[in-house]
Amino acid sequence: MDDLRSVERIVSDDEKTKISAKNVQVYYGDTHAIRDVDVEIADKTVTAFIGPSGCGKSTFLRCLNRMNDTIDICRVEGDIRIDGEDIYDKRVDPVQLRAKVGMVFQKPNPFPKSIYDNVAYGPRIHGLAHSKAELDEIVEKSLRRGAIWNEVKDRLDAPGTGLSGGQQQRLCIARAVATEPEVLLMDEPCSALDPIATAQVEELIDELRQSYSVVIVTHSMQQAARVSQRTAFFHLGNLVEFGETGQIFTNPTDERTESYISGRIG
Amino acid sequence: MPVFWIVCAVLAIGVIGYGLCRSKAMKSAGGNARNLHSLPSYYGANAFLFSVVAPLALLFAWLIFVPILIDRSIGATIPEDRIAEGSSLGLMMADVSRVSNGLNLAVSEGAMTEEESRSIRTEFTDVRERLASVGVALGSNVDATILQAAQKHRAASDRSRLFMSIAVIALSLAGLALAMSRTKADFRARNTVEAAVKVMLIAAASVAILTTLGIVLSLLFNTIEFFRIWPATDFFFNTTWSPSFGDTGSELGLAPLLWGTFYISIVALAVAVPVGLFAAIYLAEYASPKVRAFAKPLLEILAGIPTIVYGLFALLTVGPLLVSFFGDGGTFGVEWMRGGTAVMTAGLVMGVMLIPFVSSLSDDIINAVPQAMRDGSLGIGATKSETIRQVVLPAALPGIVGAILLAASRAIGETMIVVMGAGAAAKLSLNPFEAMTTVTAKIVSQLTGDSDFASPQALVAFALGMSLFVITLALNVLALYIVRRYREQYD
User: Fold this and answer.
1) What is the ipTM of this complex?
2) Any idea where the ABC transmembrane type-1 domain is (chain B) (predicted)?
């Protein structure tokens, strides 16, 4: 754990809160999946959610862009605000919300379309480009942001499903940033990738921090330590501890966090 | 010995072998099944297979081939000049075997003694009458030559039957002995039995393939026969279909029938594809599990309705309804339709019949599109309908095209609805309210007429069938190709 201390942590005190969740409860049918979660996620930082399988971290992540609405039996209670606006308010259109809160999934899921069309999908739906040239520009910018432009610039017409796993995941990240979201949610984005692809994606996450607030769910504590500034530890549907990453990993206040990090539970 | 008892005997030997080998295996392992290579039942099953499979195979081969050999050897003894005028050796041999079987039947029913049946003579007895009394009908009087041949036939058959019984049971016992001698603790009985199971599975798979092959060959030979007496160019390029059952004046052109087939199929697909596809999208994407559990089986019931019932529906309901709209003095004031039977009538009803094909297959295909794909699209901020139109349907498209092509080949092969809904007039016309007919309907009418089976008017049915077969085969191959070529590999 020595290397963790060497990671640079810049968490200034004057950062502004992007997402604030208070007293969130999630039910799957009769199961109470998430209890009393309070989290404040800062703008332009990477926040990692860690915890054992089934602890509710992915479920909570999906609350932040109302993806849980697509599951019939799922019910969310509590107060989640992005920039002070309640996203579960009746007046909020979940479709609009998801354009603002992009998401990258565990398994790379490019659409069965060309690389270009994969990235252009969001901008086309939301009418972000007024001309072909403008769309080309957005696609190029997004692919550059996804750190995949150099690998695919010569074959934008090739199907996105033909890329390698790591490339597919970066394509999905490019696709997510193409709609200019303010928050990027990542649900175990590296779990299906090999170490080299993982390193590329992690590097990318660090760059994305310049423009977005990134929330990443991960099983790998090393990954959380490497990429995040803040870490939240979930256990059995509860948020056990939330704080600055270095502090969580080196000096956790809760006994369960310490047990999990040192490998005794989980 | 009757065949039934031979089979029983062989099976009995098999069952005894099962018990013997099972206990022998146990004994050789010192009573402890752990010392055996396989479970004890495998040794038993192995013995059963050894003493049953080969003997039964021999039995069936004997039953199929030996009578042919007997016929041939007896046929050779009939002198050329004894074959009656206008008859042939084949016809005579048919009589011979019928007399031979008839005598056997008469003996077994007690109408004749064994002695009598051996000594019966055409000079003293009317054999035809005697056999008719036990229910064997003969086409002509039995003359001495036939009776003599029939007696030889009986003797040869009896001999063959005896040899067969001995051979089969001996083979069965030999198999049992072989299995016994091989049964030891380290004999790999399980591998042998599993190899036999594999052979059985292969045989099951071959049945379908071989049957298809047989159907194609029988079609092919008759088609060749037809083209030998009818010019192929006339069949393919003549635009008139008017078979007359006399010798002259028949025109047998494929074109009007093919056009009718395609026209009706197109109307049917124009109904079935949109309706079926929309139904599938609703069921797969929008319907709640409750509605789905109720609506999907209900839709699939449509596929279970016999086509003759659809035909009745076309004839009694849809036809008159269409006439009341498009017919003389109808609602629309046009006179497009003269009778209830029309391309439109058959096409609409056939379309309804095809809806469950399209919807059920498409529904399965849409459901097979991974949820991750939908999540990806929804996560970007697409609405449900954008997701369906731009992600789910393109991903499912190859499968949907396959479903549509399968429905198309169903439509092309459909007969009953056409016979009852579209009429029987072969016509090349663009008016969908006119009666037309299809290839399948004409195959039925050509073969069920009372024309000579060797005439071109009857044989043309096979050429029509072959054309249809080639077309639907091509459609199916195309469907398979599209599905394979463009299917996204999801894991």
Assistant:
1) 0.84
2) 258-479
